[in-house]
Amino acid sequence: MGHPKFTTWFAALLVACTPAAALWPLPQSLTTGSDLVVLATNFNIKLSMDNSPKDLQDAVSRTEHYLSHDNLGRLLVGRGSSDAAAIKTAKQLSILIVSCGVDTPRSLSDEAMDDLESRDEKYILSVPSDGTPATLRANSTLGLFRGLTTFSQLFYEYDRVIYAPETPIEIEDWPTYPYRGFMLDTARNYYPVSDIKRTLDAMSWVKINAFHWHVVDSQSFPIEVPGFMELSQQGAYGPNLVYTTSDVRDIVSYAAERGIDVVVEIDTPGHTAAIGESHPEHVVCFHATPWVNWANEPPAGQLRFANESTVFFTTSLLSAVAKMFPSKLFSTGGDEVHTNCYNADAQTQEILNSTGQTLEQSLSSFTQSTHGALEKLGKTPVVWEGRSCFLDFQCISSTETLSEMVLEHNVTLSNNTVVMVWISSQNVEAVAQKGFRVIHAASDYFYLDCGAGEWIGNDPFANSWCDPFKTWQKSYTFDPLANLTEAESKLILGGQHMLWSEQSSPHNLDSITWPRAAASAELFWSGPAGTETTANGRNVDTALPRLHDIAFRMTNRGVAAIALQPLWCALRPGVCDLTA
Amino acid sequence: MGHPKFTTWFAALLVACTPAAALWPLPQSLTTGSDLVVLATNFNIKLSMDNSPKDLQDAVSRTEHYLSHDNLGRLLVGRGSSDAAAIKTAKQLSILIVSCGVDTPRSLSDEAMDDLESRDEKYILSVPSDGTPATLRANSTLGLFRGLTTFSQLFYEYDRVIYAPETPIEIEDWPTYPYRGFMLDTARNYYPVSDIKRTLDAMSWVKINAFHWHVVDSQSFPIEVPGFMELSQQGAYGPNLVYTTSDVRDIVSYAAERGIDVVVEIDTPGHTAAIGESHPEHVVCFHATPWVNWANEPPAGQLRFANESTVFFTTSLLSAVAKMFPSKLFSTGGDEVHTNCYNADAQTQEILNSTGQTLEQSLSSFTQSTHGALEKLGKTPVVWEGRSCFLDFQCISSTETLSEMVLEHNVTLSNNTVVMVWISSQNVEAVAQKGFRVIHAASDYFYLDCGAGEWIGNDPFANSWCDPFKTWQKSYTFDPLANLTEAESKLILGGQHMLWSEQSSPHNLDSITWPRAAASAELFWSGPAGTETTANGRNVDTALPRLHDIAFRMTNRGVAAIALQPLWCALRPGVCDLTA
């Protein structure tokens, strides 16, 4: 540990039990000291490079703004009053020098949308106590951006002084997994662009790098697609409840400038009733009743995929959407397809009879066509693991049977396909065994909407289908590599929290999402923690004060993160533990 | 049914299955027609009385504002487009004439704070189709105010026209129960006055008439009490996180002007650690650890009630608080008292030894003193049914044992005492058998905070103690008279939803409360509904479209009520039912 003032995070915890360096996610390597350093009133961040990208310059400006406006008092009794004496004698930090290891740094936006596995988010940050410059280094713009995010979390306010406790601070940091996402469903209920942007900001603060946008579903089709304007005109909830092509460009660039790749999802062939509003010819069991016989939730409606013209329509639609999103990833969904709809559709049966194909073979052709079109555009297809759920309504709950379907049925998926496992974390092993890359999205760990009761009408005593509520602790203690061999483990790309919007809208977007979604952000950046203390000192107990900290910081930046505990507890780390 | 255009609510449902007259709570008697009437641009509400109270005039102004600003489209596909033709030929309503059956109406505020059982909230409202004046009549200002609230819910907007469908409308209405409340805990986390006022507004829109203010607890003491300023100075979370005496006056009058009585609670002798910050001499087991041995949640701390000076302090404090609140009701709490704290307190043991009293006898004396002081000031004491929980930590979950304690132990309560039953709805019968008046506040039906996971630190796999989430359907189907004799039934004053704030703050106040808390508001106004269709056509199924309606109306008035379903379902009453 060299310098006597340095102590590792873990040791610091054992010694002082303070919420030291309340960073979220926790860096891979962190050493802290026992001094503090005050931000000089003329403090500035200097990009020490020729031709610095405009979006990096903007990120610097935002960082400077956060530093001067966060006004976050330390979450300790007295809110920093115990630092008052040290603040008086502390040195002033005047500058953070940011330098890049490559001569011509690319834009942050471009790097944010690179192939997932080629992105470089590593950075090295040093904040001395002696008034000499702080330094941030990386070999990528993306790395520099992550470092700026970390830097802004080091500072607190007391009596109008901005300062960083526990200096000198040395950080070397990189993500454990390349994909840390957040999914929002904007189809069950609509969210204005401003809500999405606020969410993107909050995501970037915890280094989430993928916005999985479940933009359409059976209930509404709120995205304008060039060449397919009738879909939103007739399928959106209203003329003002649409993401225009300009809105989409705005969201994509806003996200990219914050290190976030927008992965759009057009769920097919199920979850497509809204397409039937303008294209009834492509939709089977359109609004069929009783809906329980035809869909997992109302309204029913699925693409008539055996029909060639529907295949052509779908590939054209997906291609048009794909051109709106620069991301290399594109989700075609594929969950909750009900055979009843096809068994009862005369046209489908006729086609199958005449071609001699089974329904599965037909779905396989459809999938190859749609995925093929996307791959031609340079996209990697993403699907839910329930891809070939050729079962009845029960499939959603009978995960064992479903796994068999995923694995044994004949829907051919390219090896390149990325699979999001949602039905159950128990399905990860089987999907990985098939050699697919996996994004963790299990409803039993990462669904933000669970536990709010049944939303289907006239079912007064039912609870949420995925009851209980998934606490941040539950998500945080998820093991991404459970039951996997070493080879299979390499297929894990990361994971995400998800907000399905049957019972959500802009009114509870912040409160249902934050700070809970930060749990997966740290899990997939810093690596798994579990309940035992890890090498870097993490577990649910040491995480809580830091999670409070990022929640309060979010609050001060305008995101309405909820209280995890009484303020009395938040100000007294550990004191409200079960064992305290 | 006389006039052929009239049809009862129930019949209308059977015939048309529309979300007719989306009132919340549903009036006791309602007949609707099949016309509609348009609000004239010069529409006004005329108080046809001499010396109309100022606060009634203000309520009229607010009603006029709501009528012109709600801009609520009907929750049907097309948002009112199907009314367009009828709007064109409809008559114009120019005036609502409001008249009172008494010569000198009292102020709304005074009537709102009358003795619970003497309040008169009855009104008669008539909205004709033919352009003749609408009329509102009552024998009380409070009744007129309830009628104005109903009137404002009759109107919708389409294409900038404000109109009421289903006229003519005849309403005769009164509450089934005199007490419909909402409880907010402002001690675990603090809520600014503006949040409380917004909540009071929303409460008044659904005719809730009691704000049960759990203002202090062990975590903080955020209310300034004249003569006891040290309590908030040292016990509040911070100097800006305090309700000043002026704030309290503001809240009390704001509530009263909206027909709401503010029932304050100073929980004693448990839940009082915050008093120990300034008066350690009155608090036993102050912040004792491990807290699980001394309290149901951290921090521990209870009043040393065997001590005469503590009794004097408490009666003085309660009297001082009582003078700040004009309500006739005052809650002294009484829940979750832990004997460990007294068994381990040398001073208490010494006093008990010297007086020969048991701890229970001593608690009984304390209760008689504090309640006696309140009764002298004209207050009716309110307690939680866990009054004499002389058990260990288990008492919170072992309701049977607790019931025995309530009933068999010797803490003497005046017959006049009102008991709020919180631990379990199963305890209502036993409390009523003892002859106490009851307010339903059962955690198994009315706790808004249940189901959000465990908030205690380092307990990663625990769910909320009162899991699962209490859905609006669950609350709505509560039977207030279950297991009660006819005589016991007369002791039921009403009930309320409650928001405990361990995991709540201003950020989720609206989203966790609305529209759920409207479920008890209707239950205790319109009477129980259950799952079967009642005489007035109510059940969870017919309630849902109306609940959507009031939620959207709240939204348009600035209260962030959440979405109960996808908008697709909200616009199609019944179509997302389980059986649709």
UniProtKB/TrEMBL annotation, chains A, B:
Residues 23-154 form the Beta-hexosaminidase eukaryotic type N-terminal domain. It comes from Paxillus rubicundulus Ve08.2h10. GO terms for cellular component: membrane. Residues 1-22 form the signal peptide. GO terms for molecular function: beta-N-acetylhexosaminidase activity. It catalyses: Hydrolysis of terminal non-reducing N-acetyl-D-hexosamine residues in N-acetyl-beta-D-hexosaminides. Its EC number is 3.2.1.52. The keyword Signal applies. Belongs to the glycosyl hydrolase 20 family. Residues 177-527 form the Glycoside hydrolase family 20 catalytic domain. The active site is at E336 (proton donor). It holds the Pfam family Glycohydro_20b2. One of its GO terms (biological process) is glycosaminoglycan metabolic process. Gene3D superfamilies: Chitobiase/beta-hexosaminidase domain 2-like, Glycosidases. It is an enzyme of class 3 (hydrolase). Keywords: Glycoprotein, Glycosidase, Hydrolase, Signal. This is Beta-hexosaminidase.
